[in-house]
Write a structure and sequence with these properties.
By secondary structure, the protein is an alpha+beta fold. The chain has helices at residues 2-38, 59-71; strands spanning 45-48, 52-54, 89-96, 104-109, 116-119. Strands 1, 2, 3, 4 and 5 form a five-stranded antiparallel sheet that branches. Strand 3 (89-96) and strand 4 (104-109) form a beta hairpin. It is globular and about 60 Å long.
Length: 120
């Protein structure tokens, strides 16, 4: 009986791990496509953080990030068409350049990972 519980727990853990890896991959692909389309210079992406979620980003903070994104000299022609559909946002941090400890942007996604809705 104990063995079957262990197998069930390990199976569930493996499924969760694989699902989160797939979401991280999707998020990375969205960011890479965004950088390719909007970067004003060649950006050498050095790493990505793990994909995580947050509920602490208010609508006003989201709007402020969007306004700042318009002025970010690293990117051009930035526009966000997707609106927030859930209080939970997913985010990933992209580090880039030779001094990647100081150079990074955090990208926020809707819960379904269909598009980037803001970055800072």
């Amino acid at each position: 009986m104990k063995r079957s519980r262990v197998h069930i727990i390990l199976g569930i853990w493996a499924l969760l791990l694989l699902a989160s890896c797939g979401q991280r991959y999707e998020a990375k692909q969205l960011v890479k496509a965004f950088v390719k389309e909007h970067a004003t210079e060649e950006i050498d992406i050095s790493s990505f953080s793990d994909l995580d979620s947050t509920k602490v980003i208010s609508d006003s903070l989201l709007q402020e990030m969007r306004q700042r994104a318009q002025k970010d000299t690293l990117f051009k022609d930035v526009s966000f068409t997707t609106e927030r559909t859930s209080p939970t946002l997913l985010f990933i941090r992209m580090r880039y350049g030779a001094d990647s400890l100081n150079q990074s942007r955090t990208f926020y996604f809707d819960k379904d990972l269909t598009s980037i809705i803001a970055f800072k």
